[in-house]
Amino acid sequence: MSLERHGYVAGPDIATALYLMRELGRPLLVEGDAGVGKTEIAKVLASILETELIRLQCYEGLDVHTALYEWDVQRQLLRLRVEQAAGADADALEQRIFSREYLLERPLLRALTREEGPAVLLIDEIDRADDAFEAFLLEVLSDFQVSIPELGVVHAAHVPHVILTSNRTRELGDALRRRCLYLYIDHPSVEKEIAILTARVPELDGALARDIARFMHTLRGRSLVRTPGVAETLDWARALLGLERTLLDPEVVRDTLGCIIKDRADARQIASLGTEALLREAGVRATA
Q1: CA gap 195, 213 in Å, rounded
Q2: Separation CA 165–CA 154 (nearest Å)
Q3: Using a CB cutoff of 8 Å and minimum separation of 24, what contacts does 224-228 make?
């Protein structure tokens, strides 16, 4: 499996975790700060396997029906009226309107019933869902089956490759952790971030890539409310390219700070420190 050929710079830990996830058929729980590349792993894996990426974005209040299935009530009512007008048998009609034909598959059911082969199922930011939804997931992740009252147990046609991500906004339960392999991703080193920039923004000058990586590393050493991730680094690099800048200087850093700083308190902190001082601390070349 070549992650780098698909634009994802990964160390042996990430490559091994993905390999074991596939070999053992176990879900992979990926934790780390926002922006370190957790979600991107699932996207790249789907690209490598040339399969569908099915994403379930978690949030507070997410319920089972939104994640699993819903009935197409409008079509059911229409069928009901037509069949009743034609004098259809009530029991037979009930069976027809609660069949797979009227079932709207949501991400989890779609991942289990996909006939073409195993999909990559991304359960993104599971820490944002509540405990009840996490408990519901245990059956799905253990047996790869779900129960639908009107239809019975639905087994997976093909066991999906499951990746769960968490930003650690709350502690996940032990039961969920035991069902998963585990991977923690930290912010990249300077060298790794240069490699990421080179892979994802190949038109970027090598020296500028190095300066950007050093500056970002220096920023992450500060106590920021929202530490910028790799996504911000890439946005910034593309912005500098768009502005046709080949060097970092205090002025351009100030003017483009919105690409990497996303909080007012952090912007004030950077302003008080001064971009020139930060560039010096980062060891960036040829600053004004």
Answers
A1: 10
A2: 25
A3: 224/261, 224/263, 224/266, 224/269, 225/263, 225/265, 225/266, 226/34, 226/261, 226/262, 226/263, 226/266, 227/33, 227/34, 227/35, 227/187, 228/35, 228/260, 228/261, 228/262
Q: What is the amino acid identity at position 280?
A: R
What are the residues facing 163 on neighbouring strands? 28, 122
Residue with tokens 């396997």: 49
Q: Residue holding tokens 């050493």?
A: 221
**Residue whose C-alpha is closest to residue 29's, from 123, 105, 132, 144:** 123
In the structure encoding, which two tokens stand for residue 133, read together?
A: 């939804």
- Residue 262 is encoded by which pair of tokens? 């996303």
Residues 142-196 pLDDT 10s? 889 998 888 889 999 999 999 999 999 999 999 999 999 999 999 999 999 999 9
Whether residue 287 is predicted with pLDDT greater than 70 in this model: the reply is no
Which DSSP state fits 128?
G
**Residue 281 dihedral angles phi and psi, to the nearest 5°:** -60, -35
With 0.90 as the threshold, say if the pTM is over it. Answer: no
Q: Return the beta strands (E) in 58-215 as ranges.
A: 69-71, 103-105, 120-124, 145-148, 152-155, 161-166, 181-184
Beta-carbon contacts of residue 143 (< 8 Å; ≥ 6 apart):
none
